[in-house]
Amino acid sequence: MTARRRDDIATARRVVVKVGSSSISGENSAKIDSIVQALAAAHARGTEIVLVSSGAIATAIPFLNLEGRPNDLATQQAAAAVGQNVLMWRYQTSLDRFAILAGQVLLTAGDLDNATPRSNARRAMERLLGLRILPIVNENDTVATHEIRFGDNDRLAALVAQLIGADALILLSDIECLYTRPPGEPGARPIRRVEYGDDLGGYEFGSVVVNSVGTGGAATKVSAARVATASGVGVLVTSADLVDGALRGEAIGTWFDPNPEPISVPVTGPIRRPAFTPSADTLGG
Questions:
Q1: Domains, the chain, with CATH or none
Q2: In this prediction, what percent of the chain has a pLDDT beyond 70?
Q3: How many C-beta atoms lie closer than 10 Å to residue 126's C-beta?
Q4: How many angstroms separate the CA atoms of 74 and 189, rounded?
Q5: Verdict on whether the full-model pTM lies above 0.85
Q6: SS3 (DSSP) at 138
Q7: How far is 238 from 220, CA to CA, in rounded Å?
Q8: Cα–Cα distances in Å, from 195 out to 10, 198, 235, 255?
Q9: d(CA 214, CA 202)
Q10: Contact 171, 160 (CB under 8 A)
Protein backbone atom coordinates (compact mmCIF):
# COMPACT_ATOMS: atom_id res chain seq x y z
CA MET A 1 0.00 0.00 0.00
CA THR A 2 1.07 3.59 -0.55
CA ALA A 3 2.84 4.95 2.52
CA ARG A 4 0.74 7.90 3.67
CA ARG A 5 2.62 8.22 6.94
CA ARG A 6 6.14 7.43 8.11
CA ASP A 7 5.05 4.30 9.99
CA ASP A 8 3.38 2.91 6.85
CA ILE A 9 6.85 2.10 5.49
CA ALA A 10 6.94 -0.97 7.75
CA THR A 11 4.08 -2.56 5.78
CA ALA A 12 4.78 -1.06 2.36
CA ARG A 13 4.82 -3.49 -0.54
CA ARG A 14 7.61 -1.80 -2.50
CA VAL A 15 10.28 0.62 -1.27
CA VAL A 16 13.13 2.39 -3.07
CA VAL A 17 16.19 3.16 -0.92
CA LYS A 18 18.89 5.56 -2.10
CA VAL A 19 22.38 5.71 -0.57
CA GLY A 20 25.05 8.25 -1.47
CA SER A 21 28.76 7.95 -2.15
CA SER A 22 29.91 9.40 1.17
CA SER A 23 27.98 6.74 3.10
CA ILE A 24 29.59 3.71 1.44
CA SER A 25 33.04 4.72 0.18
CA GLY A 26 36.43 5.39 1.71
CA GLU A 27 36.45 4.94 5.47
CA ASN A 28 32.68 4.28 5.34
CA SER A 29 32.87 1.33 2.95
CA ALA A 30 32.24 -1.04 5.87
CA LYS A 31 28.77 0.50 6.21
CA ILE A 32 27.67 -1.53 3.20
CA ASP A 33 27.23 -4.54 5.50
CA SER A 34 24.91 -2.71 7.92
CA ILE A 35 22.90 -1.21 5.07
CA VAL A 36 22.57 -4.59 3.41
CA GLN A 37 21.53 -6.17 6.71
CA ALA A 38 18.66 -3.68 7.00
CA LEU A 39 17.62 -4.25 3.38
CA ALA A 40 17.74 -8.02 3.88
CA ALA A 41 15.54 -7.77 6.98
CA ALA A 42 12.91 -5.85 5.03
CA HIS A 43 13.27 -8.31 2.14
CA ALA A 44 12.63 -11.17 4.59
CA ARG A 45 9.45 -9.43 5.78
CA GLY A 46 8.19 -9.56 2.19
CA THR A 47 8.99 -5.99 1.13
CA GLU A 48 10.20 -5.54 -2.44
CA ILE A 49 13.37 -3.46 -2.20
CA VAL A 50 15.11 -1.48 -4.93
CA LEU A 51 18.45 0.08 -3.99
CA VAL A 52 19.69 3.17 -5.83
CA SER A 53 23.37 3.42 -5.00
CA SER A 54 25.93 6.07 -5.84
CA GLY A 55 29.59 5.38 -5.23
CA ALA A 56 31.07 3.98 -8.45
CA ILE A 57 33.53 6.82 -9.05
CA ALA A 58 34.38 7.18 -5.37
CA THR A 59 35.01 3.44 -5.08
CA ALA A 60 37.45 3.51 -8.01
CA ILE A 61 39.63 6.34 -6.67
CA PRO A 62 42.09 4.16 -4.69
CA PHE A 63 42.21 1.48 -7.42
CA LEU A 64 43.24 4.07 -10.01
CA ASN A 65 45.73 5.72 -7.62
CA LEU A 66 43.90 9.03 -7.87
CA GLU A 67 44.30 11.69 -5.19
CA GLY A 68 40.62 12.59 -5.38
CA ARG A 69 37.60 12.75 -7.62
CA PRO A 70 38.71 13.28 -11.26
CA ASN A 71 37.64 16.48 -12.97
CA ASP A 72 37.72 15.48 -16.62
CA LEU A 73 34.83 13.56 -18.15
CA ALA A 74 36.88 10.72 -19.69
CA THR A 75 38.56 9.85 -16.37
CA GLN A 76 35.23 10.08 -14.56
CA GLN A 77 33.75 7.64 -17.05
CA ALA A 78 36.71 5.27 -16.73
CA ALA A 79 36.52 5.45 -12.94
CA ALA A 80 32.80 4.71 -13.08
CA ALA A 81 33.46 1.59 -15.16
CA VAL A 82 36.02 0.28 -12.65
CA GLY A 83 34.18 1.37 -9.52
CA GLN A 84 30.78 0.01 -10.55
CA ASN A 85 32.30 -3.45 -10.91
CA VAL A 86 33.88 -3.31 -7.44
CA LEU A 87 30.77 -1.77 -5.89
CA MET A 88 28.50 -4.54 -7.19
CA TRP A 89 30.96 -7.15 -5.94
CA ARG A 90 30.88 -5.61 -2.47
CA TYR A 91 27.08 -5.55 -2.42
CA GLN A 92 26.74 -9.12 -3.68
CA THR A 93 29.35 -10.39 -1.21
CA SER A 94 27.36 -8.82 1.61
CA LEU A 95 24.02 -10.07 0.25
CA ASP A 96 25.40 -13.62 0.06
CA ARG A 97 25.05 -13.79 3.86
CA PHE A 98 21.28 -13.68 3.37
CA ALA A 99 21.07 -15.76 0.16
CA ILE A 100 19.83 -12.72 -1.79
CA LEU A 101 20.86 -12.19 -5.40
CA ALA A 102 21.45 -8.67 -6.71
CA GLY A 103 20.71 -7.46 -10.22
CA GLN A 104 22.54 -4.48 -11.71
CA VAL A 105 20.46 -1.83 -13.50
CA LEU A 106 22.33 1.09 -15.11
CA LEU A 107 20.26 3.94 -16.52
CA THR A 108 20.75 7.20 -18.35
CA ALA A 109 18.33 10.13 -18.40
CA GLY A 110 17.45 9.22 -21.97
CA ASP A 111 16.28 5.78 -20.82
CA LEU A 112 13.53 7.37 -18.73
CA ASP A 113 12.75 10.23 -21.11
CA ASN A 114 11.88 7.93 -24.01
CA ALA A 115 8.92 5.59 -24.05
CA THR A 116 10.51 2.37 -25.34
CA PRO A 117 13.58 2.21 -23.07
CA ARG A 118 11.44 3.43 -20.14
CA SER A 119 9.01 0.57 -20.73
CA ASN A 120 11.90 -1.87 -21.03
CA ALA A 121 13.46 -0.63 -17.79
CA ARG A 122 10.15 -0.95 -15.95
CA ARG A 123 9.56 -4.45 -17.29
CA ALA A 124 13.08 -5.58 -16.35
CA MET A 125 12.79 -4.29 -12.79
CA GLU A 126 9.32 -5.78 -12.37
CA ARG A 127 10.71 -9.15 -13.44
CA LEU A 128 13.70 -8.86 -11.11
CA LEU A 129 11.39 -8.08 -8.19
CA GLY A 130 9.10 -10.93 -9.18
CA LEU A 131 12.08 -13.27 -8.98
CA ARG A 132 12.89 -11.88 -5.50
CA ILE A 133 16.12 -10.36 -6.83
CA LEU A 134 17.25 -7.06 -5.33
CA PRO A 135 17.82 -4.52 -8.14
CA ILE A 136 20.74 -2.16 -7.56
CA VAL A 137 20.39 0.94 -9.72
CA ASN A 138 22.96 3.58 -10.62
CA GLU A 139 23.38 6.13 -13.36
CA ASN A 140 25.31 4.71 -16.31
CA ASP A 141 28.19 7.13 -15.81
CA THR A 142 30.41 5.33 -18.29
CA VAL A 143 28.27 6.64 -21.16
CA ALA A 144 26.54 9.64 -19.55
CA THR A 145 27.74 13.16 -20.30
CA HIS A 146 27.08 16.46 -18.54
CA GLU A 147 24.24 17.28 -20.94
CA ILE A 148 22.32 14.00 -20.56
CA ARG A 149 22.49 13.38 -16.83
CA PHE A 150 19.82 13.06 -14.18
CA GLY A 151 21.68 15.68 -12.14
CA ASP A 152 22.20 13.50 -9.07
CA ASN A 153 21.12 10.12 -7.75
CA ASP A 154 18.50 11.59 -5.43
CA ARG A 155 16.61 12.60 -8.55
CA LEU A 156 17.32 9.24 -10.18
CA ALA A 157 15.85 7.51 -7.12
CA ALA A 158 12.71 9.65 -7.31
CA LEU A 159 12.26 8.81 -11.00
CA VAL A 160 12.81 5.09 -10.33
CA ALA A 161 10.19 5.27 -7.56
CA GLN A 162 7.82 6.83 -10.09
CA LEU A 163 8.69 4.27 -12.73
CA ILE A 164 7.93 1.18 -10.65
CA GLY A 165 5.07 2.59 -8.61
CA ALA A 166 6.90 2.40 -5.28
CA ASP A 167 4.96 2.91 -2.06
CA ALA A 168 7.78 4.86 -0.43
CA LEU A 169 11.20 6.34 -1.13
CA ILE A 170 13.93 6.56 1.51
CA LEU A 171 16.76 9.00 0.79
CA LEU A 172 19.71 8.26 3.05
CA SER A 173 21.91 11.14 4.12
CA ASP A 174 24.70 11.97 6.55
CA ILE A 175 22.32 13.57 9.05
CA GLU A 176 19.23 12.29 10.86
CA CYS A 177 16.81 14.77 9.27
CA LEU A 178 16.57 18.00 7.32
CA TYR A 179 16.85 21.34 9.10
CA THR A 180 15.39 24.78 8.51
CA ARG A 181 18.93 25.95 7.78
CA PRO A 182 22.33 24.21 7.65
CA PRO A 183 22.83 22.19 10.88
CA GLY A 184 25.15 23.92 13.30
CA GLU A 185 24.04 27.40 12.32
CA PRO A 186 22.18 29.43 14.96
CA GLY A 187 18.44 28.93 14.77
CA ALA A 188 18.58 25.66 12.80
CA ARG A 189 15.55 23.53 13.69
CA PRO A 190 14.75 19.95 12.62
CA ILE A 191 11.97 19.47 10.08
CA ARG A 192 9.95 16.38 10.97
CA ARG A 193 7.14 16.55 8.44
CA VAL A 194 6.42 18.35 5.20
CA GLU A 195 2.79 18.32 4.12
CA TYR A 196 2.21 18.03 0.39
CA GLY A 197 2.26 21.49 -1.17
CA ASP A 198 3.98 23.14 1.80
CA ASP A 199 5.98 26.23 0.86
CA LEU A 200 9.58 25.65 1.95
CA GLY A 201 10.82 28.94 0.55
CA GLY A 202 11.72 30.30 3.97
CA TYR A 203 14.17 27.48 4.67
CA GLU A 204 17.86 27.50 3.72
CA PHE A 205 18.81 24.15 2.20
CA GLY A 206 21.84 25.42 0.34
CA SER A 207 22.92 24.53 -3.18
CA VAL A 208 24.11 21.22 -4.52
CA VAL A 209 27.28 20.15 -2.74
CA VAL A 210 30.21 18.71 -4.65
CA ASN A 211 32.61 16.98 -2.28
CA SER A 212 35.60 14.73 -2.80
CA VAL A 213 33.50 11.68 -3.58
CA GLY A 214 30.09 12.73 -4.86
CA THR A 215 27.36 15.29 -5.41
CA GLY A 216 24.27 15.96 -3.39
CA GLY A 217 23.05 17.77 -0.32
CA ALA A 218 19.81 18.81 1.32
CA ALA A 219 18.68 20.81 -1.71
CA THR A 220 18.80 17.81 -4.05
CA LYS A 221 16.84 15.71 -1.55
CA VAL A 222 14.10 18.31 -1.26
CA SER A 223 13.94 18.58 -5.05
CA ALA A 224 13.80 14.78 -5.43
CA ALA A 225 11.10 14.56 -2.77
CA ARG A 226 9.00 17.01 -4.76
CA VAL A 227 9.27 14.77 -7.83
CA ALA A 228 8.35 11.59 -5.97
CA THR A 229 5.55 12.99 -3.83
CA ALA A 230 3.86 14.52 -6.87
CA SER A 231 3.36 10.95 -8.11
CA GLY A 232 1.95 9.78 -4.78
CA VAL A 233 5.18 8.37 -3.33
CA GLY A 234 5.86 9.27 0.31
CA VAL A 235 9.49 10.22 0.99
CA LEU A 236 11.63 9.87 4.10
CA VAL A 237 15.01 11.62 4.41
CA THR A 238 17.24 10.30 7.18
CA SER A 239 20.74 9.10 8.05
CA ALA A 240 22.28 6.01 6.48
CA ASP A 241 23.04 4.87 10.04
CA LEU A 242 19.27 4.71 10.70
CA VAL A 243 18.24 2.74 7.62
CA ASP A 244 16.94 -0.22 9.65
CA GLY A 245 14.70 2.02 11.72
CA ALA A 246 13.56 3.84 8.58
CA LEU A 247 12.46 0.57 6.97
CA ARG A 248 10.64 -0.37 10.18
CA GLY A 249 8.65 2.86 10.11
CA GLU A 250 10.20 4.40 13.20
CA ALA A 251 9.65 8.08 14.07
CA ILE A 252 12.89 9.38 12.60
CA GLY A 253 13.98 11.69 9.80
CA THR A 254 11.98 14.13 7.70
CA TRP A 255 8.77 12.79 6.16
CA PHE A 256 7.26 14.27 2.97
CA ASP A 257 3.54 13.54 2.57
CA PRO A 258 2.57 12.15 -0.84
CA ASN A 259 0.17 13.92 -3.18
CA PRO A 260 -3.40 12.85 -2.27
CA GLU A 261 -4.24 13.15 -5.98
CA PRO A 262 -1.15 11.64 -7.63
CA ILE A 263 0.07 12.64 -11.06
CA SER A 264 0.18 9.49 -13.16
CA VAL A 265 3.36 8.54 -15.01
CA PRO A 266 2.57 7.67 -18.65
CA VAL A 267 3.58 4.32 -20.08
CA THR A 268 4.20 5.97 -23.45
CA GLY A 269 5.27 9.48 -24.35
CA PRO A 270 7.41 11.90 -22.35
CA ILE A 271 7.22 12.24 -18.57
CA ARG A 272 6.29 15.69 -17.36
CA ARG A 273 8.88 16.54 -14.71
CA PRO A 274 9.13 19.41 -12.26
CA ALA A 275 11.91 21.82 -13.23
CA PHE A 276 15.33 21.00 -11.82
CA THR A 277 18.67 22.64 -12.52
CA PRO A 278 21.65 21.18 -10.67
CA SER A 279 24.51 23.48 -9.82
CA ALA A 280 27.05 20.66 -10.00
CA ASP A 281 28.55 19.79 -13.37
CA THR A 282 30.28 16.56 -12.43
CA LEU A 283 29.14 12.99 -12.74
CA GLY A 284 27.39 11.67 -9.64
CA GLY A 285 28.90 8.17 -9.63
A1: 6-256 (3.40.1160.10)
A2: 85
A3: 15
A4: 42
A5: yes
A6: strand
A7: 14
A8: 20, 5, 11, 8
A9: 27
A10: no
